[in-house]
Amino acid sequence: MSFHRISGVGSARISRLLERFDTLEEAWNANERDIRATGLPSDVVSAIVTGRQNIDPEREMIQLDRHGVTALTLDDDDYPRLLRHIPVPPPVLYVRGTLLPTDELAIGVVGTRRATGYGTDMTARISRGLAVAGVTVVSGLALGIDTIAHRVSLDAGGRTIAVFGCGLDTIYPPRNRILAEQIVEQGALVSEYPLGTKPDARNFPVRNRIISGLARGVVVIEAPSRSGALITTSFAADQGRDVFAVPGSALSAASAGCHELIRSGAMLVTTAEQILDHLDVARVEVQTQARLLLPETPSERLLYGIVGAEPRHVNELSIESGLPIHEASGTLLALELKGLVRQSGAQHYVRA
C-alpha cells in the first residue's frame, strides 16, 4: 500500500514489481539494485528508494483501520476472482464494506449523469429486477444513472458495489455521502487509489475498467455519444464481458451512445429478465455455490494448468498430470461445476 504514496508509482508499475518479487512487502524491502532489475525507469527507482525513507507502512495500516478500510492484494483469497484476471488488475484494492463470493454474479449498470425521466425509469426497472434475482449491481456512485442503480438495488434488498475514482476517505460526489454509507451496509465501496487521493478527472476513465472487471457484463442505460459510460463498455469488451444497451428514442441525444453500441453488436435489452436469461443465471449460481463448497486443491490447480484452448481427452490429461483416471475425472467434474473448464465433446475438455 505504501508504494501508492510514491509519485510515479501506479498500478502498472506495482504490477511490474510483483512480477519480480513474491509480495509487496518483499519489494518494499528490496535493495536498489534488485528494484532496478525490474526494468522500471531510473527516476521511478530513485523515487522509490528516496520515498520509502519517509513512509511508515505501519502508519499506513493504522490510517486504513481508522477509516474502516481493508487493503487486498492480488495474492489475497478475498481479492475478487473475476477482477484478478483482467488486463492490469489493481495490485491493491481498497475496500470499505464487504465483498462476498456471491458478488461474482454481478452486472455493471452505467449511464449518463443527466438522466431523463425515461432513463430514470428504465434504470430503476432493470436494477430492481437484477437485485431481486440476487445479482449484485456495480456502478460508479456518479449522479444520474449510477446513483439510481445503487439506490434502487438497496431498496430492493440487494447488494451493490460502488467503484471510486479517488480514495475511500473522500465521498464523491459529496451529495451521495448518505448513499455511500448505506452501500457499506449492503455491499462495498472499492477503489484502487489510496486514502488521500482526490477525485481528479483523469482517475475516472481508468477506474471504469474495475466496474466491468467486477461484473459478468455491463448494461448501458442512456449515454450520449462520447459518454464516459462508453469507456466502460470498451473495457468490458477487452475483458470478454457481455455488453448490453437499452434503446431510447431515435431522436434522443441522451441515447445516441446506446444506439451506437447496438449497431456495433451490443445486445439490445429492455428488461432485467433478458439479461438474466442471457447470462443463464441458474447455471452461474450453481458455479458460484460450487466454488464455495469445493475449494481449490492441488489436483484442481494441476489439471487447470494443463487444460488449454484445444480439446483434450480425459485419458490424455490423466497421463500428463500423473493422476489416476478416476481422480482426474472427478477433478475435471469439480472444475466444470466451477465454470473453469467445459466439455467440447465426449470426455474432451477445454478451458471455459
Q: In total, how many beta strands?
A: 12
> What does the main sheet amount to?
9 strands, mixed
Helix percent reads 40-55%
Please provide the ordered H/E string of secondary-structure elements: HHHHHEHEEHEHEHEHEHEHEHHHEHHEE
Give the amount of beta strand, in percent: 5-15%
Radius of gyration: 22 Å
Distance between the termini: 33 Å
Looking across the biggest beta sheet, what order are the strands in? Answer: 1-2-6-5-4-3-7-8-9
**What is the approximate shape?**
globular
Q: What's the overall average pLDDT, rounded? A: 88
| SS-derived structural category | alpha/beta
Low-pLDDT stretches are none
Counting DSSP H or I runs of 4 or more residues, the number of helices is 17
Short description:
The protein has 352 residues and is of the alpha/beta class.
Q: What report would you give on this structure?
A:
There is one protein chain. By secondary structure, this protein is of the alpha/beta class. 46% of the residues lie in helices and 14% in strands. It contains 17 helices and twelve strands. The protein has a nine-stranded mixed beta sheet with strand order 1-2-6-5-4-3-7-8-9, with helices on both faces. Strands 10-12-11 form a three-stranded antiparallel beta sheet. α11 links the parallel β7 and β8. The longest helix has 16 residues. The mean pLDDT is 88.
